[in-house]
Structures are given as C-alpha cells and as structure tokens.
Design goal:
The chain is an alpha+beta fold. Helices cover 55% and strands 16% of the residues. The protein is built from two helices and three strands, in the order H-E-E-E-H. It has a three-stranded antiparallel β-sheet, covered by helices on one side. A hairpin with a 5-residue loop joins strand 1 and strand 2.
C-alpha cells in the first residue's frame, strides 16, 4: 500500500511538472483576432497576455468607436485564448492523473 501511495505521489508530481511546462509553452502560442472589418487587430498568447494591437487610423478619430472596437475584439480574443488554454491544460492534467478509485471525474 505504501508503495502504491509513493507511486501516486510520483505521478502527481510528474503531472504537475507537465502542467507547468504546458503553461510556459502556452506563452508561445499566439491567438490572432480582428474586428469584422479588419480595422482593429489584436494578438494574445494562449495565457491571455496581449502581445500586439493594430489600430486603423480611421478609428483614431472617434474615441467611442475605438473603445467599442477594443472591447469587442479583445473579448473575442480572450475567449478564444481561454478555450485553447483550458483544452491544453485539461489534456495534460487528464493524461497525468494516476488511477485513484473514485477520482475518475477527469477521465
């Protein structure tokens, strides 16, 4: 029984290490999003860090319109980045989970 417990602890530590490695890798996965008309483009990492924002000069003339564009486009980009992030981390967590009776909710 003690050996099983040590094996499970080892697997949990290995899974934790894989999750941390995946989080680092997600800093290099870029998510591009643009407004419907292409006047605003944003790039985020899958960890939801903004890397770049490109604004068409036409939007600079209207502060309210620019704010609306930023809100809509950034929210879409964050939503997409979150989906990628959660899918990647869930896959790693599922793969690394030891077989613990009653804990099959991750399978």
């Amino acid at each position: 029984m003690f050996g099983d417990m040590m094996d499970m602890m080892g697997k949990l530590k290995e899974a934790q290490k894989k999750v941390e490695e995946t989080k680092k890798r997600l800093d290099t996965v870029l998510i591009d999003e643009a407004s419907n008309d292409g006047k605003l483009k944003v790039t985020l990492t899958a960890n939801r860090t903004i890397k770049s924002i490109e604004i068409d000069d036409e939007l600079l003339a209207d502060k309210e319109q620019l704010e609306d564009y930023l809100i809509l486009t950034l929210n879409k980009a964050i939503e997409n980045a979150t989906k990628v992030n959660e899918a990647e981390l869930a896959a790693v967590a599922k793969e690394g989970m030891p077989n613990i009776p009653g804990m099959d909710m991750f399978k």
